[in-house]
Amino acid sequence: MYKLKYIILFIIVFCTSQVIGFAQDPVFSQFYSSPMSVNPALAGNGNASWRIVGNNRSQWIGQGLDPLTTTSLSFDGKIIRSKNNESNYIGGGIMFLQDKGLAGAYKTNSFNLVLSSHVSLDAEDESGISVGLGGTYSNTMIDFSQLTFAQQISSSGFNRSLPTLEPYLSNVKPYFSMFAGVTYTFSTENNNFDIGVAGYRFMKTNRSALNDPTQLDPPRYNFHAGYQTYINERLVLNTNAIYVLESNLHSFTLGMNLGTFLDYSEVPTILNTGLWYRTNEAIIPYLGLSYRNFQAGLTYDIPTSTSNTALNTLKTYEFSLILRSPQRGSKGIPCPWK
Length: 338
Prior knowledge:
By secondary structure, the chain is mainly beta. It has helices spanning 2-17, 309-312; strands at residues 50-61, 68-81, 89-101, 106-120, 127-142, 153-154, 157-158, 175-187, 191-200, 205-206, 216-217, 220-230, 235-246, 249-261, 270-278, 282-291, 294-300, 302-303, 315-324. The chain has a single domain (2-324), classed as Porin. Helices cover 6% and strands 52% of the residues. The strands form 3 sheets. A 14-stranded antiparallel beta barrel has the order 1-2-3-4-5-8-9-12-13-14-15-16-17-19. A two-stranded antiparallel sheet has the order 6-7. A two-stranded antiparallel ribbon has the order 10-11. It is globular and about 75 Å long.
């Protein structure tokens, strides 16, 4: 157990110290349920006037360890609509994101503010372009008093009252960064397609627990696409994919969801079942339910990697909850992420 604890501590400190800098970036299996962490141009793009989205991801559960949890809470919507064409709008949103691990000894908080704009490209409002711009303020806190180090070992085990003899470790300085994105959408009554790209951390930021000014986080780029259509009067197909590129690291996730209508009211109740695959990491089954203005989703990551046997024995769950406004647009296809 101590060995596994050191592995997880090493991963967390390494991520806050090295150039790859994964720790401050959200890693959601249900990335589609966290639109502003995918692309700021998606702020306000849903079929509703506004939405509140909450995500909670708990990973590395098991072996008596405290899990690493990632939590986000966001609010976005359409701020101003064009009087001549309601398909043209200015949107915006705010998002709070937190990573927490080792029973709170490690914690990262991010506060994001986003503005977006959507413009139709034709008279039928079938094609459109959205652009988004945002800023984020982030801080990382490491409570070294809650951690154990080799210098604290004694004949009776670890003694936290002993000095750690790690004078160079410190909390990571807060930083501010910018991000931007663009999406193209083609939408009809029975089909919807969108594709986009977003970039995060255009400003180089130092994020080191070792006071090393040369350790900078690189930009991160998201490439994403999605398609929705009706299969028949009872089934709707939703597919999407995302490719994340950061320095020389990358990941690709793709999958699909089938929505089954359980009734035919104005805002129908829909049972969602889906399956996603993240390259060299996990197969991710999804189960969700949409009822009136509420939607809930649950995923479980099934590890597929053979390189981290110890971590593969741990469990990862993720839960999402979305509340949408009662107002709906005329072209909306029922979709878990809109």
